[in-house]
Structure to design on (198 residues):
């Protein structure tokens, strides 16, 4: 039956999204099929426009649909501190706590020899170029507290300290092996307040 094949295809595509298992994908597929056609079209257009219009900020590497992201263009933010994170989802997580009012630098990954990701494969060169301007006085390393995140933080610390810039690391209120994206706001706030110099 064609209708069932279409639902199966929709379920398969939805199950490719992170965190969506087969049963959830099937539930979503049935929900979408039952939605009014105009709402389905709005959903499809939002997905397409999100993919088409969102790009990396040329300054920090965060997601934006403008020339420069809202953080970099916000003149009320401190310009003397940069928080270094793995990806744009981590910027979103840290912004939720409303504790930090500086700038960000998104690495676009972490050093991971097991995955053949070295220092040249992430945005370290761009970070060093930003730091060479002399305006930044503190770099907060907020990579995840897992093996790759710790290795990346240690590597960055060794590069940045000789520049005379204070290097701090967020405290480990975030559990080892945990991801910032899934950490609650209270834990993130405590981790950020408890950052230490490296």
């Amino acid at each position: 039956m064609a209708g069932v094949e279409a639902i199966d295809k929709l379920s398969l595509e939805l199950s490719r999204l992170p965190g969506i298992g087969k049963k959830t994908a099937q539930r979503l597929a049935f929900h979408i099929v039952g939605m009014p056609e105009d709402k389905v079209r709005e959903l499809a257009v939002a997905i397409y426009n999100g993919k088409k219009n969102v790009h990396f900020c040329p300054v920090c590497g965060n997601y934006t649909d403008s020339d420069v992201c809202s953080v970099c263009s916000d003149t009320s933010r401190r310009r003397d501190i940069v928080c270094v994170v793995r990806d744009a989802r981590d910027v979103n997580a840290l912004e939720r706590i409303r504790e930090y009012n500086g700038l960000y630098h998104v690495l676009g990954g972490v050093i991971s020899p097991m995955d053949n990701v070295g220092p040249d494969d992430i945005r370290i060169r761009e970070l060093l170029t930003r730091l060479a301007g002399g305006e930044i006085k503190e770099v907060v390393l907020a990579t995840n507290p897992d093996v790759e995140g710790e290795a990346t933080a240690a590597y960055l610390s060794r590069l940045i300290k000789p520049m005379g810039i204070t290097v701090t690391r967020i405290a480990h209120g975030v559990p080892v092996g945990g991801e910032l994206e899934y950490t609650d706001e209270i834990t993130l706030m405590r981790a950020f307040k408890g950052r230490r110099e490296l």
